[in-house]
Write a structure and sequence with these properties.
15 helices, about 425 residues, FAD/NAD(P)-binding domain, alpha+beta
Length: about 425
């Protein structure tokens, strides 16, 4: 029986797109090079899968900045509320965690994947695994897709192969070459949502220390205009690691590092107590030094600072572990306040695609019809998910974009 649609890549976008197209009566085959579908779904969110964020369509659009407008039609087709309802209907109940991340109540990414596979099976779409696509060519009736063992012909092809992040999951950038072969512009892919590395020894010595709320800024001191020195800013949780810095806040600003021609010239400026204005912190320390002069200096620092970090910052400004608060000079106090509120950590780079959660760059959006996900250059060719030049912040935004663009593509073919 002749096919109507070939979907390449069984990730979030591909699974939902294939099911949606088949539900509309299309004859669909979904081709996946891995032996099992949805590998990245299973890996995501610490194997819990953060499926979306607790915002409406406007909140998703705003999170994507200038690229957000591209998502209007996709989100109209499948909003965050629609996506949650979709999974609830499959028996996957969800919860909203502090900060707005939406997870399955079970905390199992496998439940998310199983729900998508159930829907795919009910739809009648055929799933082919363990077959990599080696070529996509034009054919009399549209396209011919050649795999490692056979060929498929159909008037519609949807590329949902993802980007280059987590290459161990199979996302090795295959879709870019096929898109380019059909004349599409590829915005150079680079890692996003990836940990940041540093050569600062004191940072690495704090491996394992976490802070729930830190304001981080990527700063380029080489920029003369002070207003333009801050390349990215984010507030969230923060983790010291053996290589440098991880956690949502550092990872969210990493795209500014990977997009910079000289990342080693950048610093990560950290405010470890963003709720506390600098002048208030200074006054608190001054008063505490008078009131509790016999205590060690680290003992009068706010409790929100983990003990190991407090000790490291005190040593950094020349205050020994046994220095008493009454012995703290005004100059030392000012240096300590600056170390807490404006700590500049040199950046050496990032951990790259190997540890990146998403890819920045991809198929240029101005060459895709956002109302359908069809190529403006070649009728019948569609793109959805991370293969597009779309990358959002951490917190479920990228999965929402993948599901929504996939759903819209499946509704359009």
């Amino acid at each position: 029986m002749p096919l109507d649609v070939i979907v390449i890549g069984a990730g979030a976008a591909g699974l939902l797109a294939a099911a949606r197209a088949a539900e509309r009566g299309r004859r669909v085959v979904l081709v996946e090079k891995n032996r099992r579908p949805g590998v990245k779904i299973l890996m995501s969110g610490g194997t819990r899968c953060n499926i979306t964020h607790d915002v409406d369509e406007a909140g998703i659009v705003a999170a994507y900045g200038k690229s957000g407008r591209f998502l209007h039609s996709a989100l109209a087709a499948l909003s965050p509320a629609d996506l949650i309802a979709l999974f609830e209907a499959e028996g996957v109940h969800t919860k909203v965690e502090p900060g707005g991340k939406v997870f399955p109540v079970s905390d199992r990414a496998s439940d998310v994947l199983d729900a998508l596979l159930r829907r795919l099976e009910r739809s009648g779409a055929e799933l082919v695994t363990g077959e990599g696509v080696t070529a996509i060519d034009g054919a009399d009736n549209g396209f011919r897709v050649t795999t490692t063992s056979r060929t498929f012909d159909a008037p519609h092809v949807l590329i949902t192969t993802g980007g280059k992040s987590y290459p161990g999951s199979g996302t090795t950038g295959d879709g870019y070459a096929w898109a380019a072969a059909f004349g599409h512009t590829i915005v150079p892919p680079r890692p996003a949502l990836t940990p940041i590395t540093t050569g600062a020894a004191w940072v690495k010595e704090l491996q394992g220390v976490t802070i729930a709320d830190v304001l981080v800024r990527v700063v380029d001191a080489a920029v003369e205009n002070a207003k333009h020195r801050v390349l990215a800013e984010r507030r969230g949780s923060f983790l010291f690691a053996h290589f440098g810095l991880s956690g949502p806040a550092p990872m969210d600003v990493s795209r500014a590092v990977t997009g910079h021609p000289r990342p080693a010239t950048l610093t990560l400026e950290c405010d470890f107590l963003p709720e506390l204005p600098e002048h208030v912190l200074d006054e608190q320390l001054r008063a505490a030094a008078v009131r509790e002069g016999k205590r060690r200096v680290v003992g009068i620092l706010p409790d929100a600072l983990p003990a190991r970090l407090a000790e490291a910052l005190a040593r950094q400004v020349g205050v020994g572990d046994e220095r008493r608060a009454a012995e703290l000079s005004k100059q030392q106090r000012m240096r300590l306040v600056a170390a807490i509120k404006r700590q500049a950590i040199p950046i050496s780079g990032t951990r790259g695609f190997a540890k990146a959660e998403v890819t920045a760059g991809g198929v240029a959006l101005d060459e895709i019809d956002s109302r359908t996900m069809q190529s403006k250059l070649l009728p019948g060719l569609y793109f959805a998910g991370e293969v597009l030049d779309l990358d959002g912040p951490i917190g479920g935004y990228n999965f929402q974009a993948a599901f929504s663009t996939g759903y819209l593509a499946g509704s359009s073919m």
